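Write out the 3D structure for:
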Amino acid sequence: MLMTILRPLQHVKSTIVPTVAGLAVLFMSVTVVAGERPDSFADQAEKLSPAVVNISTTTIVSEGPSSDMPRFPPGSPFEEFFKNFGDNERKRRASSLGSGFIIDKKGIVVTNFHVIENAEEITVILSDDQSFKAKVLGQDQKTDIAVLKIDPEDVELTAVEFGDSDSLRVGDWVLAIGNPFGLGGTVTAGIVSARGRDIGNGPYDDFIQTDASINRGNSGGPLFNLEGEVIGINTAIFSQSGGSVGIGFAISSNLAKRVASQLEEFGTTRRGWLGVFIQEVTPDIADSLGLESAEGALVSSVNEKSPADTAGIEPGDVIVSFDGRNIEKMRDLPRIVAETDIGAEVVVELFREGKLMTISVELGELEKAELVGTTEDSADDDTQSFDSLGLSVKNLTADLAAELGLDGALTGVVVTEVIVGSPAAEKGLERGDVIRRFGQRRVETTAAFADAVGEARNSGRSGILILVEREGNQRFMQIAFSDK
């Protein structure tokens, strides 16, 4: 739902009506105290507008066979001729406009990936209407950032610099200068409405929300702070009508700066890689693990031969800080890891079996990583049933794996029965699910699983936390005891 609402700001390749990206600018006059609203934004707009560019793209669009072909009776000698003629796809050139900003006087331009996606030709147009053909130095769909290069020849370009988006406070003033709906040179002012927004745009979402009027066509333009530094790239809006309702989103500059630098230098991103799959720590999970608060990132699985595996990180660990930065929410970890230098030796603080511990990890490179699964060993095949949970388990043998339609190479404890209406059924546990861990401990036999359940009940816990594997994917489930 949200992504559909955000789309009005994004580059629409099928339209032939140009759209123009808006650019946000704000610069502090020498007479203005930081945080105060200046009497006028005229000086700031005049100073920074030359660094704001329009980006015109041309894309070849296929529309399929024409429906205007004449119809003939079956068997007519003209039928086959016109059938073959009509089967040819019709193609047309579609144009669209976006925005960007110059970060280097040599002609380096930053914009959104979706502005230039699949473009056959890209033209950068300066504020004085001079235009230059551009080539793509690099693009990254995950963060929606692209870097272009133009040859300015003898033209003196105006460039702007990235600022520190982490220093922003909710309520700080920002100014937008752009070309919404093709109306060039439009200036709007606003404030930072929120920080750290996750809008479902990608795995590294860290958006700045602003109420500065941003409309369709503002994509790719910069958002400036009071010092005239780029603190965001306008990327999306929340709107049901396609027009501004005062909720716009900009990629934070601290994320954008690193990505843009890598795209300019290498033509691609080079992100840090830890090698773990994670999930949110819910209040139920926090209670099951003995955590005081529902914070951190719960490790559900670890890739073999990954930096995490080499360092000794295990499924069930809760990562609470990475390289000195607290992990308050699960989504914080992927972004922070990606922003860390490849090969860097970082300290990871994690919670395991009721204790905090630190592990040193040397990060790998995400773009070169190969994800590999893991398997466990098993022992006997005794069956155990747990009425208070509503499930039965059995050690997984080759014969049982064949019966349940599972991979014959799988081993461990498998769920053989789930009682309808039980706590296990309510949580979505299914027959054939393989239980890998109980809390933060490995589960290799049904006997060990039964012992763990007994310990949980005797300690007064409200339920159990198990790591379940289904169709190659692993996920923790918190299942309550029915009598608690």
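The chain has three domains: 1-269, 272-368, 383-480.
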